[in-house]
Amino acid sequence: MNNLSIIFIGLGLAVFMLLAYAATRPDEFRVERRLRIGATAEQLWPLVGELRGFNRWNPYERKDPLIKGRYDGAASGIGSRYLWESDKVGTGSLEVTGVQPGRAVQMKLDFVKPFEAHNQAEFALQSTADGATEVRWSMHGTANFMSKLMGVFIDMDKMVGRDFEDGLHNLRQLAEGGQP
């Protein structure tokens, strides 16, 4: 056996081991961030529970000022929908699927580009004794094999979590009286 054959066998074994490791990763993922904001849940609700309000502090909207977005369906509440197309943040849609006014909103998040993904997002508001509100932003979904493979190299919690943190800080600035 020559050196080139040994190199190819070694590379093939390394690729096989990488693929086998990726296959053992969890079938689901969850990203969640929380932030205490000095505003009541009632004050925050229009910024969290309505898509137009959300887009005032949405970190992904800020990443691409040229994003092409449009609203569809109901004006607010269940069935309201936002679709976007962007070279920087991809193409997809966000649809409100559940609402507990002043407390929580659930959304279906569908990505088309740069890769297809179907996830669930939620904003939950928890009032605190001092009149502030803890805001929780979470996203979860199924991790297909490509997601598992990408996860070997990219920590989704850190990558997406950083965006969630930025967004929650934008929300805090907006809600506490300043423009983010």
Automatic annotation (TrEMBL):
Supply the name of the protein: SRPBCC family protein
The record's listing under Gene3D superfamilies reads: 3.30.530.20
The root-end lineage is: Bacteria, Pseudomonadati, Pseudomonadota, Betaproteobacteria, Burkholderiales
Highest rank taxon of the organism = Bacteria
InterPro entries from the UniProt entry: Polyketide_cyclase/dehydratase (IPR019587), START-like_dom_sf (IPR023393)
Q: Which organism is it from?
A: Pelomonas caseinilytica
